[in-house]
Design a protein that fits this description.
alpha+beta; Alpha-Beta Plaits; 3 domains; 5-stranded antiparallel beta sheet; FAD-bd_PCMH_sub2; FAD; EC 1.1.99.14
Length: 396
């Protein structure tokens, strides 16, 4: 298979224009860490952003950073850390769950709307994304958004590109706003709560004025012999100390919460962020289910009534990571029925054998009116249909 690795946006535009002219489907990749996510590729060549590297703007005072799409994420994070700053949305590293190698890239963070536990406080990646450059399916370089918040005007292609998984264009540069690293980070841990009690405790904490930046629950057997309910608090040291005390008093009927800090706290949230508790066994299918936080335990109970499964919760119960047997439809019918019964939400198949991902809708099936809109957006940006065809939805 041919691999194109342009070293500039202009070169990428020429490659895309030529591929469109001969209707050559392209697989768009950055570091390749999420290559097994989505429906199986239906391409004839690979278009890599790996040669589009380099940080193009960093204004610590404006709290904005921009880099070409192929720039390793670790390089950007190291630069920010050196100035006491960070990406607000805590992007997931898919390598532990997908068993992939390579280096996550800055552009892929935007393309996948890659967001972690801090989303409940800081928003998703798309909420911090303020500018993009990309090449559309006609081979035209497009710029949308700005490099400072006050310059973000016009048609919001920025949000459209975020989470499009490379189906609308090749991102060549992305710009994110950043935040300061917090002076103190601590995690409250409640032990022994069943799912419903844990979500009740998380809801109480999230509804309080004491500002959590993480709210997760790990049932027994997921990351230890007993359940653990995790609540992260960040900020100035004096503020964190006060809020921890108030939260412990608020939640005392759920048990005596312990405080975890430093490397141990960071490891807990890294595991939640990356889905590590469900990484093994490798042959299991893994789903990412979004629902209303208070509905999380009912959704998992309904799924468990239909097939064996293991799970944990993030976002106060609103995000469920669930592993089940990959045979048949990998649980798609049972899982999506449970989500539908909850009245809100969607389910995405994150990990499964290629044959399963070809047979089962990986992303939540769209109602016909939304599917027509999706197809129309695809046609407008990629009229020849050459970018990652079928990766999100069959035929698009």
């Amino acid at each position: 298979m041919t691999t194109y690795a342009p070293a500039s946006e202009q070169e990428a535009a020429a490659i895309v224009a030529q591929a469109a002219g001969r209707s050559e489907p392209l697989r768009l990749v950055g570091g390749g860490t999420k290559a097994a996510f989505g429906r199986p590729p239906q391409d004839e060549a690979t278009l890599s952003a790996a040669g589009l590297t380099g940080i193009t703007l960093y204004e610590p005072a404006e709290m904005v950073v921009a880099a070409r799409a192929g720039t390793p994420l670790a390089e950007v994070e190291a630069l920010l850390a050196g100035r006491g700053q960070m990406l607000p949305f805590e992007p997931m590293d898919h390598r532990p769950l997908l068993g992939s190698s390579g280096e996550p890239t800055f552009g892929a963070v935007a393309a996948a709307n890659n967001s972690g536990p801090r989303r409940i406080n800081a928003g998703a990646a798309r909420d911090s994304l303020i500018g993009v450059r990309f090449v559309n399916g006609r081979g035209q370089p497009i710029k949308s958004g700005g490099r400072v918040m006050k310059n973000v005007t016009g048609l919001d292609l920025v949000k459209l590109m975020s989470g499009s998984w490379g189906t609308l264009g090749l991102l060549t540069e992305v710009t994110f706003k950043v935040l300061p690293v917090q002076e103190r980070v601590a995690t409250l841990v409640l032990a022994g709560l069943v799912d419903t009690e844990a979500v009740e405790a998380l809801s109480a904490a999230l509804g309080s004025p004491f500002e959590l930046t993480g709210a997760a629950h790990l049932p027994a057997g997921i990351a230890g012999p007993e359940p653990r309910t995790l609540m992260r608090v960040e900020g100035f040291a004096s503020s964190v100390g006060y809020r921890l005390g108030e939260l412990r008093r608020l939640l005392r009927r759920h048990g005596d919460a312990q405080i975890v800090e430093g490397a141990d706290s960071a490891a807990l949230w890294r595991a939640v962020r990356d889905g590590t508790p469900l990484a093994e066994p490798r042959e299991a299918a893994v789903w990412r289910i979004s629902t209303a936080p208070t509905h999380g335990p009912a959704v998992t109970a309904a799924i468990a009534a239909g097939r064996p499964a293991r799970w944990f919760y993030d976002w106060g119960g609103g995000l469920i990571w669930l592993a089940t047997d990959a045979s048949d439809d990998a649980g798609a019918a049972v899982i999506r029925a449970a989500v539908k019964a909850a009245g809100t939400g969607h389910a995405t198949l994150v990990r499964a054998p290629e044959a399963t991902r070809a047979a089962v809708p990986v992303f939540e099936p769209l109602p016909e009116p939304l599917m027509r809109i999706t197809a129309g957006i695809k046609a407008a940006h990629d009229p020849a249909g050459i970018f990652n065809p079928g990766r999100m939805y069959a035929g698009i």
